[in-house]
Amino acid sequence: MIAELGHFALVLALVVAFLQGTLPLWGAARRQAPLVELAPAAALLQFTLVTLAFLALLNAHLASDFSLAIVYQNSHSTKPLLYKFSGVWGNHEGSLVLWVWILALFGAAVALFGRNLPRPFKARVLAVQGLIGLGFLAFSLFTSNPFARLDPAPLDGLGLNPILQDPGLAFHPPMLYLGYVGFSTAYSFAMAALIEGRVDASWARWVRPWTLAAWMALTLGIALGSWWAYYTLGWGGFWFWDPVENASFMPWLAGTALLHSAIVVEKRDTLKSWTILLAILTFSLALLGTFLVRSGVLTSVHAFATDPSRGVFVLALLGIAVGGSLALYAWRAPALQGGGAFAPISREGALLLNNLLLATATATVLLGTLYPLLLDGLGGPKISVGPPFFNATFLPLMVPLLVALPAGSMIAWKRGDLSGVLSRLGLAAAGTVAVLLAAALLADTRSTLGLMGFAAGAWVLLGSLNELAVRAGFFQVPPARAWRRLKGLPRSAFSMSLAHMGLGVLILGITATATGQTERILAMRPGETVTLAGYEVTLASVEQVQGPNYVARSGTFAVQRDGAPVTTVRSEKRFFPVESMPVTKPGIHSTLLRDLYFVLGDPNSEGAWAVRLYHNPLVFWMWGGAGLMGLAGLVSLTDRRLRVGAPVPARGSRAAAA
Amino acid sequence: MGLRKRQRMIVVVLALALVGAAAALVLTAMQDKIAFFVSPADIASGTVERGRDFRLGGLVVEGSIERASDGSVAFTLTDGAGDVRVLYAGILPDLFREGQGIVAQGRLEEDGRFLAREVLAKHDETYMPPEVADALKRSGHWQEGAEKLR
């Protein structure tokens, strides 16, 4: 009964989405206030209805109601409670409900927090948001009904793919979807602006917090996914240039470009039509990601279903959303008047360079991701495009971006003085040279790529610190005064430096892990000791253990350094009888400086166990860097001046700050 | 030339230069950085180039798995029309088992054995990599319902 109510709520949400997507557009065009006022109410109603549907689905999972097809197919009575909860979106139908729910959440948030938006504009934004919701609710209801019943109801379920039985499932998909779907607001704002034919600084100010929130969530979502892959797949790797990863990385790259170009629109009233195009492309890439992952054209742990009708439906949605928006863009964008002119050496020029490089990089990733599919579709040879391709195309494009970043973030608007900026970056340059020398002397491998990575990471990190110091005036005024000035800087200034520092840290972490990893693959007997990067690793024992819904072979490794015990690490190979599937759990001991990462494999005929031992230096900082970037987004969101509801700062606090 | 026009010229030139550079990078990478998919039959026919990366897909032959004392593994892949001995120094994926369709990425050695850097067996026990299914269809060993092959 509850499931039927959920189904009914989803159908009602479809109807509301239809009304939300049509009437306010009509009302805004005809200046009919009641229809315009309908939009926020409809957005809130849609959110309520999808929430009800989501709760009904959650209830079915928690109660293990196996009369529901997706619960039967993806759950089991012995499954731990956490995975009954996160298992709601651990399947195609449920993940689509989560998608739609987050879409409705953003719609409701715009309705609630967009109080300072002009009414007709807000109505148009929400209408576009409603149309997107209409498409995906129809997708859910007509091809992937989450509430489909089974009759007679089976006694127990088939269980959830054990790879997904991990706390990562509770965080990675919602966070990623917040990012993917969050870019729908940027898209809706862009469409509304195109309909009105007007883009100005205030448009950029309205759209920026939404883009920022989506970007922040996507950054963290990708980092969480990468971390999950790292601790779960047992290869000691963190990024594989897998098409599914690329599907999330492309909107991130485009979204990063969008964040930067929106600043130019806000501050200088130029690059308008480019920014609108980026907003459209970013969400289009997010939709493309949804298509790639959900249609079954890619085989991956993310592709739950390979029902061709679903692929065709998402492709049609993608075609309408991308084609429609680009057509509207082609029609209306020429009317957008460019604003202030600028010299090539200027902040605008630097941000434009950032945009061009990011857009080109996105294009190479897109090409590498789609080329094998296109070739296959056209009957050509089957090929695989993997890390070597992306390392040879994507990385070279990042070099000029990273080299230009510190100077670009310091250069003046309109017409900049490059030599002046460079002279103020002397400290960062000296630090970078020091890091480069240290890396060349200390690092085990002296690959050119590795050294370039260390130099780029150090340059970006130190350059951002240097920028902050210069802005506070540490090289001109007494330190105490500079410190006070630093504390008085707006949060958006901090967030920029913090995000760039995070990027630098991320690059250092990736480079250190990629070039400094020590790997040993060997067969060990219980009691045997081997050395790994200065540690003595002993396979202490291998025993059978019983988990809640699995049995495992658990290997205990004792780690010593110079005879002193460091830690013990357990790696398990779990077997899930319900799903009849084994899963490896690596044993990891993390510190800020390194991870010890051990994997227990299969026994050989002589009673020894295949093991993989890794020493991954500085790998923590890879996630740490991504975390800093996410934090930077949060800091920027709390900046009063950028808050959606507060365009005009309170007079008192402003005066105090000045 | 007006400032705005010059500004536009610079952007266009820069964009063209970047697109050109990216196209050059992509085309070079397409030459030697992509891996073609081959079947054991292709190797048996001797048409496969040595010393470059490719992907090999097939079914793991029953009873062919040998684990050496150094932790490396050897097994035979077949598509019914040819057999290839694969060497792999590493831990096999969880879903690797006899009769399963898998994909190995690596190089062909001079002695005709395949040295794998990576072995992929994905996601669930009934999954058949599409490339493997295709190779089996071509060699006439495909039966509807891939599980029956085991």
* Average pLDDT for all residues of chain B: 78
Rg of chain B, please?
22 Å
Low-confidence stretches of chain A: 644-658
The total strand number of chain B stands at 7
Major β-sheet annotation of chain B: 5 strands, mixed, barrel
The total of helices of chain B stands at: 3
pLDDT average of chain A, as an integer?
89
* Category from helices, strands and their pairing of chain A: alpha+beta
Would you give an account of this structure?
The complex is a heterodimer of chains A (658) and B (150). In chain A, the strands form two sheets. Chain A has a five-stranded antiparallel beta sheet. Chain A has a four-stranded antiparallel beta sheet with strand order 2-10-9-8, with helices on one face. The termini of chain A are far apart. With 658 residues, chain A is α+β, with helices and mostly antiparallel strands. Chain A has helices at 2-30, 33-62, 69-74, 81-86, 92-113, 119-143, 168-196, 201-233, 243-268, 272-294, 308-332, 347-377, 387-408, 418-424, 426-442, 448-472, 479-488, 491-516, 620-637, 651-657, and strands at residues 383-385, 518-524, 529-532, 535-546, 551-561, 564-576, 581-585, 587-590, 594-603, 609-617. Chain A is built from 20 helices and ten strands. In chain A, strand 4 and strand 5 form a beta hairpin. The radius of gyration of chain B is 22 Å and the shape is elongated. In chain B, strands 2-4-5-7-6 form a five-stranded mixed barrel. Chain B has helices at 3-32, 40-44, 130-138; strands at 34-38, 54-60, 66-67, 72-78, 83-89, 101-108, 114-120. Chain B has three helices and seven strands, in the order H-E-H-E-E-E-E-E-E-H. Chains A and B meet through helix 12, strand 1, helix 13, strand 2 and strand 7 of A and helix 1, strand 1 and helix 3 of B.
